[in-house]
Amino acid sequence: MSDTQTQPSKTAAENGLKRNAIGTGGIAFLVISAAAPLTVMAGVAPVAIATGGIGAPAGYLIAGAVLTIFAIGFMAMTRHVKAAGGFYTYISLAMGKTVGLASAVLAIVSYNCLQIGVYGLFAVQTQSMLHFIFGLDVPWPVVALSAVAAVWFLGYRGIDVGAKVLGVLLVAETAILAVMGAGILSHGGAHGISGSSFTPENAFNPGVLAILGICFAAFMGFESTVLYRREARNPDKSVPRATFIAVGFMSVFYAFIVWTVVQAYGDGDVVQAAGQLSNGMFFATINQYVGPWAEVVMYVLIVTSVYASQLAFHNAINRYVYMLARDGVLPAFLGRTHSKYKSPHRAGQLQSLLAAVVIIVCAVLGADPYQQLLIWVNTPGIFGIVGLQGLVSVAAFIYLRRNPAAVTNRLVVPLSIASAVLLFAVVAMIAVNIELLTFADTLTNTIILLVTPAVFLAGLLTARRLRTRRPATFERIGSFEIHES
């Protein structure tokens, strides 16, 4: 065989991701860590309780049920297509390359919003931990930039190393929440144990519907299981298993923990407590029901929880960029992997540099790390990902109708369109109640709401431009993960 014939396959092998690196558990750890269970509980659940009342735990079950329906159609398409390109590949296959590329652009921007914004939360939580335990006051930009370096380093070392670290951190943060829940129940709560949170009148009250955006935000990243297909062992089984394990675990665990906190204060007093204690609610609760030592541990673990989330999103972003580079849409150097670790290290370097630039700009402008960097940057990411989930549901419906051989259960097709309707309804609810996420003025909220459609439109225009000026590249959109063995 000639050199010209062997060169493409040699190049593909050199720039390929590491095969058979992670199994079901590793993938599940990656995507659950992206959601940062301790962070979304201690940092955001008090807002859900203050607004949703004692029915707040049901909000997490509702979100989990909708996302489970979404996952059924998503995984049915995944088993048949066998691609690792995530939203990008699936939407391209079913709805065309133009919409597919626009979805890829929106996914990259949305995940970056989620990842970069959370550096603000990391800085705030780490500042609180250092002050609470050691009495130290460290400037937040120093903390955030140190986190960028730490995330880049583990992402550079490869997916298997990152999965092991995330596994340890996830077990630790889950354990401290479970210890708090057990402590509350063992003491019988404030006034005995009540199941009122799950009665229809409390579970479906207007307050719970208003906090659905908060509840869905707690699951961000679980859908990225398919991005690790090329690095997974036995992906036909491990990817679907990890997906359902992730969404099932998070929905039940979140509902359980929030319900136990309701018990800690009682049905009649928990809303007032959530309003007064705010982000300190979980720390005060674990101090009261478990002990001061547990509060110290929670302060430490909430920092590692945010770090785990950052690393997981960093990995997901890098793989999206890698796929687009291999399809020829982005510069080729971003589609190269490390010769030893097989990580998409060039994409990782670019993502870390972008995060550092945003942090430095915010610091120079005097932005608040929580309000401006976290909340305002994060919210467009939530819109984008939930909207993309809705589009993927439409894509699954179209694809499965066109390919009856991929349908193993008659309910899959109707469930796909049902999930699309539900997810787009959630997007509308988030928009209507955006002030619950941003605590911002009308102008700021309007700008935030316009980010997602503006990015999607930019993606559509980019695709149209490619089709006219670089037709060969346009034809490759969504093809790398389908055709490369």
From TrEMBL:
Q: Which UniProt keywords apply?
A: Cell membrane, Membrane, Transmembrane, Transmembrane helix
Topology relative to the membrane? Multi-pass membrane protein
Q: What subcellular locations does the record give?
A: Cell membrane
Alphabetized Pfam families for the sequence = AA_permease_2
Superkingdom is Bacteria
Q: Which residues cross the membrane?
A: 21-48, 54-75, 87-109, 129-153, 165-184, 204-222, 242-262, 296-317, 350-367, 373-400, 412-434, 446-463
Q: Where is the signal peptide?
A: none
Does Transmembrane count among this protein's keywords? yes
- Name under which the protein is recorded: APC family permease
Species this protein is from: Arthrobacter humicola
